[in-house]
Structures are given as structure tokens and as C-alpha cells.
Design a protein that fits this description.
The protein has 264 residues and is an alpha/beta fold. The chain has six helices and 13 strands. The structure holds fe (ii) ion (2 copies).
């Protein structure tokens, strides 16, 4: 089975890039199942409205994962249980939304898990390891072997240790949140595909992780409480990984990075 995982979709430009580019990638790479991180897809880059979710599904996502910005759009609470949307399961125990789910892909059961790291991230959640353990056991206990984990975290070391902790029990552990694609993709010894960060979807080269120059400059260089504004114009790109998984064992065979400019 070929799985596509797309990095954080940022603002309107990110949703546009996805709309114009995702179906081409899915067709070319013969993708069976597609996960998209949508935590920054709202207009202001924080959270995801119901409309943004609809846009992302219409562009070709099967499941949407979130991250630390999950509470950015209050609407999340209204659609969280109706749509195939996940939020970090170790974040806000009693709040709406799910941290993992099972779907069927042409007869093969598949699990998706969304977790947030705890190092240098706000708001911090409960133990990512305890949540991962519980979610993986629930899915594997129900016979699911193809399992994808989105670890939304800042620290490279925290993502790697979670991947090593789950190696052999899940098909892939992919990092999100930093918006910078890393070149360390590999399949670990136990058969778990890993990358520290998938990257971002939207205007990347001309922006600061999706935001325009002004606000970020004012905060860092001048120490002002400046507002960050998503950059709307520039070169749209999609950052993603393609993972080949053996459907029977759930082990990953290959992982390949994609970083490409979207042309209409
Ligand atoms: Fe993000
Ligand atoms: Fe994030």
C-alpha cells in the first residue's frame, strides 16, 4: 500500500497549493491513502475551520491530523466527532476530538494516530509515550497492522526517540510542526519508516515558516509584541513523504521525500 503524508498546510496559500497540486501527486505516485496535517490551514494560520477542513478533504485528503494549534478555531469542537479529523490525543484529555482512528482502505484496516511532543511546545500535553502505547495497543489488539503516527513536536530528539520506541509496532512515525523538511528519512531496523519533519505546504521560500517578514522581524529584532501575518504571495509548494507499506506485516518498505512547486 502506498501512503502519502502531507506536511502542515499553511493558510489560504497552503489550501490553494493543496487544491492545485495534491491530485497530481496522488495520481503520479499511485497513492492509496492520504493524510494531511491541517493545523495551520485557517486564514490566520492558527487552527482549521469547518470550511478549511472541507477544502482539504475536497483536495484529496482521507484523514486530517492537527497539532498545537488545534484549539485555534473554536469550530473544531463542532465537527471534531463527525469528520475524519484527529487532534493530538495527549492534549486536553476531556476536550472534544479523537487522537486515533481506524479506517478501511480497500479491505485493509489502517490506523492513524496523532500525538504532540512535550519539549518546547505550547500548550504542553500529557506523556506522548503513554498515549502512543495505549493507542498502538488498541489498534494492534483489534488486528490493525498498518499504523501511521503523526508526532507533532518541536524537538528533533523527541521525535526520534518516539519513533525508536514504536519501531516494529507501527508502519511510520512522521514528524510535523517545524515546517522545515528534514533529509533524514529512513526505515528503522524494526520496519518503521521515519522522518523528523515532513515540512509545510504553502508559501515556504519567501516566508518565515508561512508568516510574512514584518511581524516576525519586529518580534525577534525589535522585541515588540507584533502580529504575525500569513504570507499570501510567493512560490506555492507541497512538502510530503510517500511510504510503501507491506499490508500484511504493516512494515514499511521505503520512504521517499517530496518537495515540489505547484503550478496551476
Ligand atoms: Fe504547523
Ligand atoms: Fe504546530
Amino acid at each position: 500500500m502506498r501512503i502519502l503524508f502531507v506536511g502542515d498546510v499553511f493558510g489560504e496559500a497552503g489550501r490553494d497549493a493543496l487544491f492545485h497540486g495534491l491530485y497530481k501527486i496522488k495520481k503520479r505516485e499511485k497513492i492509496d491513502f492520504c493524510v494531511v496535517n491541517g493545523e495551520n490551514s485557517a486564514k490566520n494560520g492558527r487552527g482549521m475551520s469547518g470550511r478549511d477542513a472541507r477544502d482539504i478533504f475536497e483536495s484529496g485528503a482521507d484523514v486530517i491530523t492537527m497539532g498545537n494549534h488545534v484549539w485555534g478555531c473554536p469550530e473544531f469542537e463542532e465537527y471534531a466527532d463527525r469528520l475524519s479529523v484527529l487532534r493530538p490525543g495527549n492534549l486536553g484529555k476531556n476536550r472534544p476530538g479523537r487522537g486515533f482512528m481506524r479506517v478501511d482502505v480497500a479491505g485493509t484496516p489502517l490506523g492513524v494516530i496523532n500525538i504532540e511532543g512535550r519539549a518546547f511546545i505550547d500548550p504542553p500535553g500529557d506523556s506522548p509515550f503513554e498515549f502512543a502505547e495505549a493507542a498502538v495497543e488498541a489498534l494492534r489488539g483489534a488486528g490493525v497492522r498498518v499504523i501511521l503516527v503523526d508526532i507533532h513536536a518541536e524537538a528533533t530528539s523527541e521525535k526520534k526517540i518516539l519513533a525508536m520506541f514504536l519501531d516494529g509496532r507501527v508502519s511510520a512515525v512522521v514528524g510535523t510542526h517545524t515546517h522545515v523538511q528534514t533529509a533524514d528519512e529512513c526505515v528503522l531496523d524494526g520496519g518503521t519508516a521515519f522522518i523528523t519533519d515532513v515540512g509545510m505546504t504553502g508559501i515556504s521560500r519567501e516566508s518565515v515558516l508561512g508568516m510574512g517578514f514584518k511581524g516576525v522581524y519586529e518580534r525577534y529584532a525589535l522585541g515588540r509584541q507584533a502580529r504575525f501575518e500569513p504570507l499570501k504571495a510567493g512560490t506555492p509548494e507541497i512538502d510530503a513523504v510517500v511510504i510503501d507499506v507491506d499490508e500484511v506485516t504493516g512494515k514499511a518498505l521505503t520512504i521517499k521525500r517530496i518537495k515540489e512547486t505547484v503550478t496551476e
